[in-house]
Amino acid sequence: MKILVCISNVPDTTTKITFTNNNTEFNTSGVQFILNPYDEIALSRAIDLCEGGKGTVTVINVGESATEPTIRKALAIGADDAVRINAVPQDAYFVAYQIAEYAKTQQFDLILTGRESIDHNGAQVPAMIAELLDIPSVSIVKKLDFDGKTAILNREIEGGKEILEVDAPLVASCAEGVAEWKIPNMRGIMSARTKPLQVIEASATDQWSKIEQYETPAARSAVKMIDAEDVNGLIELLHAEAKVI
Amino acid sequence: MSVLVYVENVQGQFKKSSFEVVSYAKALADQLNTHLIALSVGQVANDQLNSLATYGAQKILNCASLTSFDSQAYAGVIAEAASKEQAEVVIMANSFSGKGLSPRVAVKLKAGMAAGAVDLPKVNGNKLSVKKTAYSGKAFAMLELSSTVKVIALNPNAFQVKENSVPAQVEDFQASSASSKVRVKEVVRANDKISLPEAELVVSAGRGMKGPENWHLVEDLAQALGAATACSKPVSDAGWRPHEEHVGQTGIAVSPNLYIAIGISGAIQHLAGVSSSKTIVAINKDPEAPFFKVADYGIVGDAMEVLPKLTAAVKAYKGQS
């Protein structure tokens, strides 16, 4: 089986987010970039599914050369080869379009993504890829089994889960629970340097959305401390002042 | 021209988030001087369908032929309805199902899309500027949509339900392209549990609870308040609680009216997922816990001692009101 895992290069989860250029650009100064955590568990699951020579895992990223350390990390974790579409990701549709164009030239049985990237949080790319390829997609998958022909998926719904069966090819976006995070070993790190990384130029496409400006949330007012013995005082404040109960 | 709102149902019932999207769509339709059409897919009773008129839907399309959810088939129905009604904006909930659905609708309609909207758009000629969450709750982005048709996915708890009764009619809608490739084997639903992303009140706990055996204290408070339960990442990583309760940057982002954080220190990753809560209460035995910097109300104390007292006080308060 052939699995494609789509990976995003995002600011580390501990990053304090600031903006520059009149709040129109993310301030990358001093920011450590990482493999998007959800993409990483999707990759872990793909590697497990292909274990023992059952298949190959290709990772794909849309980004400029600065994302290559993140791609090498994915190779060190255990992907077989990588593709980088050489472009600044304009918006979700642009990214999905580039990945779909590449996927059309290959025969992937399964395309995996994380449930969302932790920078733009759109959760749009997986479903957009599927629509562009005219294949089924399942979003927010917490369990995934795949034998190369049929996938059994466990999808999160409000207050529960749905267990689904879908024939390949399909797209699935992965959430926590689908796999454990893998830590690359020394052999993985060494072999990552020599695994194939193909760079492809981007295809032209339409762009219908553009970030005009960022805002940071308004600062919250100072905390009111309540004595641990005075829980009734807290209830009174929640009722009369905050008006939430 | 029109605004089309897709209204999700759970087992034939509309939920609060369904009425939120209709209220939001109505407000936008008014801004654009156009009318609002609602679309329901699946088996929904007539009185439920008619209830959408209470929130401003002037025409209610009912596509009852599809029963189980498949994003591909549903997107086909929504796009067909949007084209037939010449919708300029399509709105739906940014729910678990909505996240798999709205991007497909956007591709079908060649529409620019905003996912995770938290406010009404600003109208600027043919363009819309939509405020949406970014960086997992650490920021917002103003996203400009310039396509002819636009798709907006609204976050739960971001827009207040508003009654706006109008006369309406329910029409059957037959979609031409409706066949599902997804086979549903089983649906597991805990009907007694409050869904976390939509919950108005959330009681959340962290490592300060010391172990899963103490969680009944958290559940007792949640039950007394009618709140959903949640937890921090270390707690779900340790297997004390299921992953679907994990709130934070790599879990679920919530924006309830009240978020009570018990024994959670307040790491930046956790705060990202809860910072848009309207009121935050922090209970922690460490007076230096970072959570107190973002909380509205704080109690310094041991969770094991404070929780039973707080639960008893909530019960007494509920009993008298």
How does this structure look, described?
The complex is a heterodimer of chains A (245) and B (321). With 245 residues, chain A is an alpha/beta fold. Chain A has 6 helices and 15 strands. In chain A, the strands form 3 sheets. In chain A, strands 11-10-9-12-8-1-6-7-13 form a 9-stranded mixed beta sheet, with helices on both faces. A two-stranded antiparallel sheet of chain A has the order 2-5. In chain A, helix 3 packs across helix 4. In chain B, helix 3 crosses helix 4 and helix 5 packs parallel to helix 9. In chain B, the strands form 4 sheets. A 7-stranded parallel beta sheet of chain B has the order 7-11-6-1-4-5-12, sandwiched between helices. Chain B has a 5-stranded parallel beta sheet with strand order 15-14-16-17-18. A 3-stranded antiparallel beta sheet of chain B has the order 8-9-10, with no helix packed on it. The radius of gyration of chain B is 21 Å and the shape is elongated. Chain B contains 9 helices and 18 strands. Helix content of chain B is 29%, strand content 29%. Classes of the chains: A alpha/beta (245), B alpha/beta (321). At the A-B interface, helix 3, helix 4, strand 9, strand 10 and strand 11 of A face helix 3, helix 4, strand 7, strand 9 and strand 10 of B.
Net shape of chain B = elongated
How many E strands of chain A? 15
Oligomer: heterodimer
What is the H/E order of chain A? EEEEEHEHEHEHEEEEHEEEH
Assign a percent range to the helix content of chain B: 25-40%
Biggest interface pair, residues each? A-B, 84 and 98 residues
Number of discrete helical segments of chain A: 6
Q: What is the rounded distance between the termini of chain A?
A: 54 Å
Outline of chain A: globular
Main sheet: strands, sense, barrel of chain A: 9 strands, mixed
